[in-house]
Amino acid sequence: MKVSMNKKGDPYDNACIESFHATLKKDLIYRRRFKTRSEAIKSINYYISKFYNEKRKHSKLGYSSPNKYERKNQKNVLDKVS
After folding, report:
1. How far apart are CA 15 and CA 24, in angstroms?
2. What is the DSSP string of the chain?
3. Is-contact 28 43, C-beta < 8 A?
4. Which single residue of 7, 31, 59, 78 has CA 20 to 30 Å from 68?
5. Under 8 Å CB-to-CB from 24, ≥6 apart: which residues?
6. Would you state the torsion angle of the CA atoms of residues 12, 16, 18, 23, taken in this order, to the nearest 10 degrees?
7. Sign of CA dihedral 17, 18, 19, 21
8. How far is CA 77 from CA 34, 65, 70, 71, 82, in A?
9. What is the pLDDT of residues 63-72, one digit of tens each?
10. Where does the pLDDT of residue 79 fall: very low under 50, low under 70, confident under 90, or very high at 90 and above?
11. Would you say 67 and 53 are in contact if contact means Cβ atoms under 8 Å apart?
12. Rounded distance, CA 26 to CA 52, Å?
C-alpha cells in the first residue's frame, strides 16, 4: 500500500469532499444564522440525510439524488447476480 498525499492544505487531495463542503455552505450555512451549536448540528444532519442524499439532484449521477442512484445501481447488481 502506498500513501498518496500532496502538501498540507491541498484541496485536490480530497476534491469530492471539498466540493461537498462548498455545496453545504452555499445551500445551508450561508443562508441562515443558527442560535445554538445544537441547532446547527440538527440542521446540517437534516440537510445531509433528508435533502442532499434524498432529493438534491447531481449532474454526475444522471440528475438523480445519491440515494436514488445507489438504489438503482444496487438493483442492477442484484439483477445481474440473480
Report:
1. 14
2. ------STT-GGGGHHHHHHHHHHHHHTGGG---SSHHHHHHHHHHIIIIIITTT--BGGGTSB-HHHHHHHHHHHHHHHH-
3. yes
4. 31
5. 44, 47, 48, 52
6. 140
7. positive
8. 42, 18, 10, 10, 9
9. 999 999 999 9
10. confident
11. yes
12. 12
Single-letter amino acid code for the residue at 3: V
Q: Which one-letter amino acid corresponds to residue 42?
A: K
The grid cell for 66 is: 445519491
Instruction: Go through the chain and tell me how many residues it has.
Output: 82
Task: Identify residue 69 by its one-letter amino acid code.
Answer: Y
Q: What whole-number distance in Å separates Cα of residue 63 and Cα of residue 67?
A: 12
Q: Which residue has the cell 442524499?
A: 53
What local confidence, expressed as pLDDT, does residue 11 receive?
A: 59
61 residue type, one letter: L
Amino acid letter, residue 24: L
Report how far residue 57's alpha carbon sits from residue 43's, in angstroms, rounded to the nearest whole number: 19
